[in-house]
Amino acid sequence: MDNKIVREKFAELFGTAGDLYFSPGRVNLIGEHTDYNGGFVLPGAIDKGMLAEIKPNGKNIIRAFAVDLNEYSEFGMNEEDAPKESWARYIFGVVREIIKRGGKVEGFDTAFSGDVPLGAGLSSSAALESTFAFALNEIFNLGIDKFELAKIGQATEHNYCGVKCGIMDQFASVFGKEGHLIRLDCRSLEYEYVPFDPKGYKVVLIDSVVKHELASSAYNKRRESCEAVVAAIKKRHPEVELLRDADMKMLDEVKNEVSAEDYRRAEYVIEEIQRLLDACDALEKGDYKTVGEKMYGTHYGMSKLYEVSCEELDYLNDVARECGVTGSRVMGGGFGGCTINLVPEDKYDNFITTAVKGFTQKFGKEPKVYPVKIGAGSRKL
């Protein structure tokens, strides 16, 4: 991350220097569509993210410059002062959420830039929210704990950006730890660090540069399927609140009472929650072969049972298998976006060349390649 550009822009605009803060984007190794079913996720912070220079300005306004977009915005801190630029609403939202919690924020100047690609499913928005939540907490001595910082980011998405997201992205950004993934229990929000130091492997994302329009309505339908199955199981097992509480035996008991589609959706989720736990056991032993098999299992489930993959992602997954990649799967909600791949170093170059060339020939556009390393969470530089 090149902080020189941010430094120069800040000095040019505001004639002074502030402090630099950074928050990372994230990947999720395994555990997809498990969050709203009360299961687990396994994210890790990455070495790409959002960098901001910030300094109090003694005024009651925020003056902000988005370096990558070359856009400037100026706004107050009351509810009616909401800026019109969508990127500025993330900063405004964080400020409002801190104020709602009784924190005293004063006006400040900022310039920021990111090397988390927008729209690649690496949570650039969470990185931006975490950067400002972390920085303002420190600059104004607000004494907010890390947990609450993640919740401030999530509430910003809900209340100011119109996205009803879970907590995973902000959590990973704030709590990231080098050489570790975070096993987060989406129901209790308890978490533990799981070692992830794959010697002899590289982690790389291949972005299909596809975004399918049906994503949000299809996502809601998947949630409804899960809820329908829980309602059917609950009649026999009143203790079952979420699919997290169910097992395949319970699901099979209601097979004739739910649609075939709803059955498949629930089967995927129940299996995925178990796959994640198996992957964590394998990581504790440094057994990356098993981790890779679980990743392929997730892709199969998302493609055939949950049906949230697409032709482009299935193609990238097939190429990974043919090239001897240890593990590969669609990452994120599906219907486009990236595959995440755990690749032996000696097979890396061939895999990237083969995937890019084959994909471009087949689909007429070139996929983007993002090598990532697992890094630390929000911090002052």
TrEMBL record:
Q: Where is the GHMP kinase C-terminal domain?
A: 281-347
Which UniProt key words apply to this protein?
A: ATP-binding, Carbohydrate metabolism, Cytoplasm, Galactose metabolism, Kinase, Magnesium, Metal-binding, Nucleotide-binding, Transferase
Biological process GO annotation list? galactose metabolic process
Cellular component, GO annotation: cytosol
| Top enzyme category | transferase
All copies of the GHMP kinase N-terminal domain together span: 90-177
Q: Does the keyword Cytoplasm apply?
A: yes
Concerning InterPro entries, the annotation shows: Galactokinase, Galactokinase_CS, GalKase_N, GHMP_kinase_C_dom, GHMP_kinase_C_sf, GHMP_kinase_N_dom, GHMP_knse_ATP-bd_CS, Mevalonate/galactokinase
Q: What is its EC number?
A: 2.7.1.6
Question: In the UniProt record, does the keyword Ribonucleoprotein occur?
Answer: no
Instruction: Show the SUPFAM superfamilies listed in the entry.
Output: GHMP Kinase, C-terminal domain, Ribosomal protein S5 domain 2-like
Q: Which residues form the Galactokinase N-terminal domain?
A: 8-56
Q: What is this protein called?
A: Galactokinase
- PROSITE patterns given in the database record: GALACTOKINASE (PS00106), GHMP_KINASES_ATP (PS00627)
One Gene Ontology term of the molecular function aspect:
galactokinase activity
User: What organism does the record attribute this protein to?
Assistant: Coprobacter fastidiosus NSB1 = JCM 33896
* Entry's family note: Belongs to the GHMP kinase family. GalK subfamily.
